[in-house]
Structures are given as C-alpha cells and as structure tokens.
C-alpha cells in the first residue's frame, strides 16, 4: 500500500526485501531470514547510491534491513501506536531519536534518553471544512445528529454487519454516515435498496471517501477500530468515539482504545459484543449531551496539531548534524 501511495505523489520509490520473523512457523522462518539478509544487502546498495543525511522509520519489519545497514547514519524512529510492536522495539536500538504519539508510550522505552512526544501527524487539508460546510458537502441535515461508522480503508466486516443488523434503530436516533470499505460494498448496496424512503434519506453509505476530513468534521460521534490514526485524527476534531479494537491484531488496538477511554474521550466495545451493545451505547451517549460534550473536550485536549511540523523539524535537525555532499 505504501508503494502505491508514494508513487502516486511522484516520489522515487525502491522496494527492499523483508519479512517478519516473530510468530512465523518453523517452515517459513529460514526463508524469511534469507529475505532479511538480502534486504540488508539491498539497503547498503541504496545507501551508497543515495547517501542520505538522515533516516526516518515508522516501524514494521520492512524497516529492519535499512536500520541494520544504516546504523551509522542519524535516524528518527516514530512509533504511532501507544504500545510499540517487536519490530519497533528492535528499530529503537538503532535510532538516534524515538518520537511517540502520546506520553504513555514512554513506559515502553525505559531508560531511553532521546525520546520526543511529537503527537500523531495529520494532513492540513483534513480541517479545511467546518461542521456545516462538511455536512453540506455530504448532503447531511445540518440539525440532526450524525454518527460516523468506519472500518478503515478496507472496511471492517463485523462493524458493517452490526450496523446493518441495527440500522432501523440507529436511524431513529441519528443520521448514519457509513464508510464500508470495498469488500462489503455490494452487500451494503443490496441492503440499502431495501430501506424505506424515510430511512434511506438518513443513511449515507460510501465504499470509500477520499475527503475523510469532511466525514470527521460532520460527525457528532464515530464508531471505528482503534488503529493509530484514531490517536491523531479524532483529537484533532474533538470527536468522541466508540472504539471496537480489531481482535486479531495482537493488543495494539486495545491499548490505543484503553488510552482514549482512560482519558474520558471514548467508550470501548469488544468486537463480539458489538451487535448487542452498539445501539444502547450510542443511544446513551446521544441522549446525554453533557457527557458527550465532556468527551468532546477530553478528546480535543489530546490534540497535537503541530505533530507533522515537529517530526519534520527533528528530521532536519538530525540531517543538519550529519550533512553529506549533494544529498537529501
């Protein structure tokens, strides 16, 4: 996915062989280790050609070969989730500076001297709309509450099906802006066609929305997974959340969700409990304006809109301390 995004922006891109080793079966382990060795060799060739002043890592096993090959070059490691994975902990050994989204991540880097709480970087264009402008752009009623439901770019089947199973009740309390992902889109379209005209006018489904900022700005509350972006985007909009951590992604999403719950900015529902709890939880929140406003304020207090600039400044500072002739 990163390759396609980078190429779309016209930025030169070179792939590096890599593979994970944690949780890999014995049959696959030798091959994955061989890929990592080839990745280190490929990384050394890239470094000789490009001669970078600084390296920036955002985690994942794909970064391991470059971290090993470039261990003598100043580097910044940014860890987006509250709890870093094993790959991030490995990369931290080579990093000159570790940047984290929230202060709670300090506990996972004990004794680390050069650690910066930068916040989660967000795109400036996300906030180009105010609430009313965002709702107009999505044909939403300005005066009725809006529940945003999203499972990320690929969607989340359990969330999608919990919504359709409870849609009549949901639409009685709010407009529903539902970003389904491509996988379940045909099923959602078929379901949508069976709605009464009155309910259909309150249900706004999209397989994917390029302008995510309009969805976030228009919503009163969001129902979603608890990936790292929730730690940056929801605070930016002061958007209260009902978080449903993905149950098969180790514990990173659960830790992210627990962090926001502890701050008073979110509620958490287990994936298997969502069909039964979705309506009661949303109904309670939407009926309690005072509590919802308190959650909104708590979420907004976690915002660090300058995170992108801070990370860029750290990269520039590291590069300035290690200038290479004619390089970027």
Number of domains: 2
DSSP summary: helix tally: 15
Low-pLDDT residue intervals, each spanning 5 or more residues: none
Instruction: Give the biggest sheet.
Output: 6 strands, parallel
**Strand order in the sheet with the most strands:** 7-6-5-8-9-10
CATH overall fold name of the largest domain: Rossmann fold
Mind telling me the CATH class of the largest domain?
Alpha Beta
Q: Name the beta content range.
A: 5-15%
What class do helices, strands and sheet pairing give? alpha/beta
Domain Glycosyl transferase family 28 C-terminal: 146-310
Keywords: Glycosyltransferase, Transferase
InterPro entries: Glyco_trans_28_C, GlycoTrans_28_N
Protein name: UDP-N-acetylglucosamine-N-acetylmuramylpentapeptide N-acetylglucosamine transferase
Quick tags:
alpha/beta, Rossmann fold, 15 helices, transferase, 2 domains, 328 residues, UDP-N-acetylglucosamine-N-acetylmuramylpentapeptide N-acetylglucosamine transferase, four-stranded parallel β-sheet, elongated, six-stranded parallel β-sheet, 10 strands
